[in-house]
Write the structure tokens for this entry.
Amino acid sequence: MTSGGPARKVFTIPAGLAFADVLAGHLLARAEHDPLKLAEMVVLLPNRRACRTLEQAFLRASGGRPLLLPRLKPIEPDEADEDVLTLLGEGDPDLPEPVPPTERLLILTRLVLGAGAARGGRAPSPDQAARLAAELGKLLDGAAIERVGFDRLGQLVPDELAAHWQVTLDFLKIVTEHWPALLGGRLDHQTRVNRVLDAQAAHWRANPPDYPVIAAGSTGSRPATLDLLATIAGLPQGMVVLPGLDKGLDEDSWAALDETHPQFMLARLLKVLGLTRKQVGELTANPDPRAARLALLSQALRPAATCEAWKDLPEFPAATLAGISRLDAPTPREEAGAIALMLRETLEQDGRTAALVTPDRDLARRVAAELERWGILIDDSAGRPLALTEPGAFLRLLAEMVADHFAPHAVLACLKHPLAAGPDFRHQVRRLDRLCLRGPRPAAGIAGLRLAVGGDASLVRWLEGLEASLAPFLAVMGRDQASLGELLAAHMEAAEALAGPEMLWRGEAGEALGRFAGQLAEAAAAVGTVFPSIAPASYPALFDQLLSGQVVRPRWGRHPRLSILGPMEARLQQADLMILAGLNEGTWPAIADADPWMSRPMRAKFGLPAPERRIGQAAHDFAQGFGAARVVLTRSVRVEGAPTVPSRWLMRLDAVAQAAGLSFDAESAGWLAWHEGLDRPPARAPVERPAPRPPVAARPRKLSVTEIETWMRDPYALYAKHVLGLRKLDPIDADPGAADYGSLVHKAIETFLKAHPSGPLPLDALARLEAIGTDIFAAALARPGLWAFWWPRFTGVAAWLVEHEQARRADIAATFSEVKGGIEIEAPGGPFLLHARADRIDRLKDGTLAVIDYKTGQPPSAKEVAAGYAPQLSLEAAIARFGGFDGVAPAPVGQMLFWRLKGGSPGGEEKKAGDDPASLADQALDGLAALVAAFDDPATPYEARPHPDRAPRFSDTNHLARLQEWASAGEDDE
């Protein structure tokens, strides 16, 4: 095509006009509203979504009357689109079937595994190999799209470049040598698309059709598409319609376009067509109502080489930015909430439409979730990740549970999933949770769970039934190696046994997951002879990787006037309200990531486009959306706590608009406040410190010496335990607990001292104590999480204890271990019993008593004991002085000692609780009597943390007391 005159076969629709509506109106007029003439036309559009958009535009243009539509075909259908097999049903060559994408991924994964093993060192895991294979697939697709051969790879790396590039080239023999050999005469999807497009172009050149052929909305991103567009432009009844060609950009800027500019791809297309912008006609005579706005955007996005022209900006009308508003939200939560409100507000006006356009999938999901508060289900063109759907998550959790040998968190995550069902299932899972999944981890496997539940026959039978349901999967996962096909088949069989096939595969998500599982099974069978067996432990991660990228798209039931679109899908669409969201650098536009296989010079030499081309395509999509009647530009100031940088397009717009004396509409400012107000109560009553006052009859009349300290420091904790009867559950799969460890140490020392109550210790005392510890720790050490933590500490304690005990024996007449006792105190509310279990009481040869408390943690200081806030030993001394301990005759207390049994080297240390035990015991008794009397008064509350500076550092009841809601800033809170 020459450049001598106007080219009436190439047109553009300005970004300020609704592309699909203008195109539909033009085609109806061209067909003279004759349905048969319209049906003869062939319209080629960029993708399947654009075809549906044009269908809806025809419906609007006809006023809802039935029409015989043109044949609408996507130029570049994706791998899931069967139209790739025959683009138009004519001129299609006899091409082999394409390689299914899942099969290709598995073959490439096998090649990556083989290449890793051949190069020596640590081979990648199967899931890592699958990720690398996916990147190799992108390289294959990119090379196929650009029509470059891998035979040129060897010329890319001169000797002077880095050695790792040489290693990379050696690795890429996968695609240069092995992959073509494994294709077996079949074609990659992108290669086949090229062949179909080339054949269609060749057929039309040789046999020009006698019906109109219109290619609309494409920018010619691939060479095969460029050739087809050039062919269509040369047909007698051919027409090419470009989206948003900027005919007002000055020639210097047009000549300086780089790959990040929104017009770069269109400029390349016009160059291939041999046209100038003046030769491109306007498809409609209607003026662009937003021409000034788009001219401002053109100025803002002009190439860097001509930005000096900003100092001579033309005058823009005051209403240039009318209809454009800006919202900078604090975080994505507020951004999504404000967007959802805007979409909801659109529905208050009959017939109005709105679309959220963003590449940020997390933001899109947040908006969809926010809309569900009003019962609105919105159409998200990108679909929902299959891995996040109910059946997808269940399959992943099931594989993780079995591979993790039924670890507590994995068990609960899987068995509490809604799809895990069966007779009495929920009840038994809750019982399993309480009986054996809390505290330190049970032994591995279902056998470990059975051992942990002990003699609970009902739960044992239920676990046996669970084991029978999962038996095939357990058998395969228990092998050293298994094929992917075997693992997948057993996985699906186990999932059906646990959930039931009618529940697992139901609904759109279940159907999509069933298709994926079928495709994966077929692919595994097809590559079974070349794909290696893998360690079953790596199967869950491999399954996750294979499942990633799979999406489920609803077929119906979504709102007809609201939608969420990706930028490319929104290119040809305009709603009454267009919300362009996620406008931060790194999101829109995305970062131009480095190629994992080639440096930029290597890509250029090889013939692949620079990564920045994607930025230019994103800029074009942004410009198309910017031309809508009403536009809201949104971004988040912080994401995941980190500050963000506004999109370069926003910053340029701000600079040019400010220079031109323009500003965005301020109407979006209220959306954030309205969103915040949605969940804000009309009035907020101040939360006061809990101070319950139960009747005296409900208050405890019996407490241990250790609980007295809690009573003084945090009465509310005592109220929760003794009045409400609450007990804390242990954490799931807890680290070995200090309390459990301390109990076992106490038991071992008690047993040892009862075996050797007096006199010198035997020469093998340490060995005897360790043997006692082995017996006592045996049940706990069956749990794998305990052996490495507890036993080394105990051996250190044992060594210190034997040495220290040997030195004390000369002064000891008798030793009493773990002895119980108590005294009764008269109080206004009736007798009050103080009881205790002393770790150790020694009767010394001088007639006095030594009261000893073992501490595996940090003991209280002598200052805390003297102040009365650590009264345990003082109260035990008072009980011992009055003969309150079984078998211990009354006697003065001469020593109050803490033995810190810390393990390590040295394994322990002795600390005095005070220098005057008698005085401390008297003070403790007097203080206790006053405390009991105070709480025998019905007006005395069980207040939460009455003295914050003396409150316990940790408490199991802080969340029940709602500490965070009333505690002052000066308090230490949980």
